[in-house]
């Protein structure tokens, strides 16, 4: 369960590696990030495994994922305006959080797990698609989306 917290950091780090570091021949920066992450993981394991056992190893691994991502972002900041990019994704993250909060309530209301799953799937698509459309049309005023829905 603890390792699940590392999934977003590892995923984003993998995306940065595949889209930016490797295609732009930033192998040295990628290697440095991985070595720093491995060192953090090794040192953290020396202390935390003795204290917490397997939980300590999980905590250290999540910390290493965060460190690797941080180093990769550090190397990217000279080539990209990260604040602008982060500002653009915040509404989508909030939409996803809102969707999750709603979907977590479905099993409390519907006790048949199959029906609850089907409702969660449909409701999740509806909430996120509707939220994304709202963000694009109302908040970001995307003209491409407006042209799709404009009458001819």
Defining key terms:
flat; single chain; 82% helix; 7 helices; 152 residues
Q: Could you describe the 3D structure shown?
A:
This protein is mainly α and 152 residues long. It has seven helices and no strands. The chain has helices spanning 7-21, 27-52, 54-76, 82-103, 106-109, 113-139, 143-149. The longest helix is centred in the last third of the chain and has 27 residues, at 113-139. The chain is flat and about 60 Å long. The model has no long low-confidence stretch (mean pLDDT 88).
Topology of this protein?
Layout: H1 7-21, H2 27-52, H3 54-76, H4 82-103, H5 106-109, H6 113-139, H7 143-149
Mean pLDDT: 88
The amount of beta strand, in percent, is under 5%
Q: Indicate the multimeric state.
A: single chain
Number of H/I helices: 7
Gross morphology: flat
| Rg for CA atoms | 21 Å
Order of helices and strands: HHHHHHH
From the N-terminal CA to the C-terminal CA, the straight-line distance is 52 Å
Q: What's the main sheet like?
A: none
- Uncertain runs are none
β-strand number = 0
Alpha-beta classification: mainly alpha
State the share of residues found in helices, binned by percent. over 70%
Sum this structure up briefly:
By secondary structure, the chain is mainly α.
């Amino acid at each position: 369960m603890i390792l699940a917290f590392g999934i977003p950091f590892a995923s984003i780090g993998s995306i940065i590696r595949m889209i930016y570091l490797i295609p732009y021949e930033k192998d040295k920066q990628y290697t440095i990030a991985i070595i720093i992450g491995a060192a953090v993981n090794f040192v953290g394991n020396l202390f935390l495994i003795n204290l917490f056992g397997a939980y300590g190893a999980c905590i250290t691994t999540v910390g290493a994922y965060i460190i690797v991502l941080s180093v990769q972002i550090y190397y990217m900041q000279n080539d990209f305006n990260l604040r602008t990019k982060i500002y653009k994704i915040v509404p989508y993250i909030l939409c996803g959080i809102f969707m999750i909060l709603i979907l977590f309530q479905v099993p409390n209301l519907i006790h048949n797990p199959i029906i609850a799953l089907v409702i969660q799937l449909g409701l999740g698509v509806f909430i996120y698609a509707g939220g994304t459309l709202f963000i694009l049309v109302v908040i970001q005023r995307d003209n491409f989306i407006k042209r799709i829905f404009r009458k001819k």
